[in-house]
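A quick aside before the break. I want you to see a complete sequence-to-structure record at least once, exactly as it would be stored in a machine-readable document. Don't worry about memorizing anything.
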Amino acid sequence: MQPLYPKIKPNSETFLQLGEHRVYVEESGNPDGIPVIYLHGGPGGGSSPDHRRYFNPEKYRIIIFDQRGCGQSTPHASINNNSTWDLIDDIEEIREHFAISKWLVAGGSWGTTLAIAYGIKFPQRVSAFILRGIFLGTQAEVDWLYGANGAGAIYPDHYQDFIAPLGHEINDDIVSAFNKQLFDSNEIARIASAKAWTLWETKISALHIDKTELVSVEETHDAIAMACIENHYFANKCFFEDNYLLNNIDVISHIPAFIIHGRYDMVCQIKQAWLLAKQWQNAQLQIIPKAGHSGFEQGIIDAICRAADKMADFLLTK
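That is the input. The structure line, written in tokens, reads:
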């Protein structure tokens, strides 16, 4: 199994003022290397220093940023002017800031949604894709993740903890029920709902959950950003019509892509990765047999790092 590359520090860190949002952006690795941007999950999850470590720092110029309202970006947890299309425009602003003509676009979970949507709008700016844990932004996927008959049927114990803050507000539309509490003036109810929302996804994201990770997820600041922004996106159907990505995949199907998905992914069902790969003529799907959804399970790490190495060899010979 190939591990993450060694820890590195950013070469530069900056904040771009994009409308009312101040967006954190960093660059690491080889300044003359292959440009790659990594798109984190959520929406609202924030970036991790370990995202740099998927890529060989001698071969890649690694760009990472915190999407609007999360991580080090401010205003914290803001949903104002925070949509899929705003984030796509932010990615273009970042590309122009670094004077990059074309780059490898990589991402995990919601980051795959954003990567594909960005590619559909700006295909001429993408040299290749590496996508882990496919989420296509459809209502069926949201219903699976938050429904009692979806992932809730696989993890009924965790699901009861998840919906506990709703009390008598429980109904078939869990996203709307949480929306009322996450944006309520009652701060105690808001924090409890944010922690429950964030913990639910974390508890079902890997085959073996590290208890220290559960403690860190409960940190109020990050939990509020994750829960409020993610709920905002899902309440607005990710800001595009259902099945938008697959309906427009022909725009980018000529661009090479590695698609990586855990066999036992309970957050994002594997059938989405299968459907995507079937319609993407220049994509290779790798199913990781002993993995769930997390980007930091050993099998997933191995697959992403190897995909990045292969893609570097390919792009350097073009």
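Two observations worth writing down. The chain is about 40% helix and 15% strand. The two ends are 28 Å apart (CA to CA). We'll return to this after the break.
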